[in-house]
Design goal:
With 326 residues, the chain is mainly β. The chain is 13% helix and 37% strand. Strands 1, 16, 17, 18, 19, 20, 23, 24, 25, 26 and 27 form an eleven-stranded mixed β-sheet that branches. Strands 3, 4, 5, 6, 7, 8, 9, 10, 11 and 12 form a ten-stranded mixed β-sheet that branches.
Length: 326
């Protein structure tokens, strides 16, 4: 989940542009898969109990653990109760305070000597951010955007693999070029203040939403839901976050379909709304484009090239608006 405040993320302006042109060219995802197999290395991703979020096995200083693959986390994170397990030391005793969708947490820093992902990918010695709270789950932390960017990773939710590009590898062409030739339906990622966004148009307004594989579903800021007059569908507690970092909120229904990056369409659906009052900064960036949409549509998130590839233009959702919701 996104842990740092991001400003000026909600662009409240009516959009006069028309709905995206219909693209009837059939995608050829096998061409993208073959390119990845030929030039990238990969490790398997494991599915969680919710069937949405993905995890990878790792080893830190030779001791094994499990990290959540989290494109919404700006930095790799370990939870405080994992420090002893990996034999590392918190080097920042003061502890900076960060506020995010999971609330306000105090964090420090710890260095590691060795870090491998899936027994295949060795990461050079560096730092983890230590979140000083218990995870409350079996995971030890988050594999964040800093390491994913360094390794030019592709988070492949269609094949459940995490692909990495060796820095010494020279590609015959960019993966984005291969995806274009394969007629994949892609949207651009825009990085701002350390997080990757997509523009989502909903009911005449555009919102910048963090692409967040650590969030289980599409989550909208309370202020955005108020602007859009989204009707409440039902109450629901603890709709986001990890472990003890939960977000109280409710479920609402969009009034119409959404358009992503002026290219893809998403039907009328249920969204989670963070009922946070004035405490959380999620309102500064509109919301989180969570894992349910990405997983259900076989997204391949190309961190290195700043693109997401889908095999179809009309996105599906498991959270269709039920009968009786106006």
């Amino acid at each position: 989940m996104a842990l740092a405040a991001i400003v000026a993320g909600c662009v409240r302006q009516p959009l006069p542009d028309p709905d995206p042109a219909v693209d009837t060219t059939p995608a050829q995802p096998a061409r993208v898969d073959a390119f990845l197999e030929a030039h990238y290395r990969s490790v398997p991703m494991l599915s969680g109990q919710d069937g949405l979020r993905r995890y990878v096995k790792i080893a830190i200083n030779g001791r094994r653990g499990l990290l959540l693959v989290d494109t919404g986390a700006q930095h790799a994170v370990l939870f405080e109760d994992a420090i002893a397990k990996f034999g590392i030391t918190d080097t920042d005793k003061r502890g900076a305070v960060y506020t995010g969708v999971a609330g306000t947490v105090r964090s420090g820093w710890a260095t590691f000597d060795s870090f491998t992902i899936g027994d295949k990918i060795a990461v050079q010695p560096g730092d983890f951010r230590i979140v000083r709270q218990s995870a409350g789950t079996e995971i030890d932390g988050l594999l964040g955007l800093d390491i994913l960017t360094h390794l030019r990773a592709v988070v492949d939710l269609r094949s459940n693999r995490l692909w990495f590009l060796d820095p010494a590898t020279r590609l015959p062409e960019h993966l984005s070029s291969v995806a274009d030739k394969a007629a994949m339906k892609s949207v651009g990622l825009r990085r701002l203040f350390g997080s990757d966004f997509v523009n989502v148009r909903l009911d005449g307004y555009t919102y910048r939403c963090v692409v967040d594989t650590g969030a289980p579903t599409w989550l909208v800021a309370e202020e955005a839901a108020d602007d859009l007059r989204l009707p409440r569908a039902r109450m629901q507690k603890s709709i986001g976050g990890i472990g003890s970092g939960k977000v109280d909120g409710y479920v609402a229904a969009t009034n119409g379909r959404a358009v992503v990056d002026n290219k893809l369409t998403l039907p009328r659906s249920l969204v989670a709304v963070a009922d946070h009052g004035d405490e959380y900064p999620i309102s500064n960036y509109g919301g989180l484009f969570g894992c349910s949409i990405l997983t259900d549509n076989g997204a391949q998130i190309d961190i290195g090239n700043g693109r997401i590839y889908f095999p179809h233009q009309a996105l599906r959702t498991r959270f269709a608006v039920p009968a009786g919701v106006e």
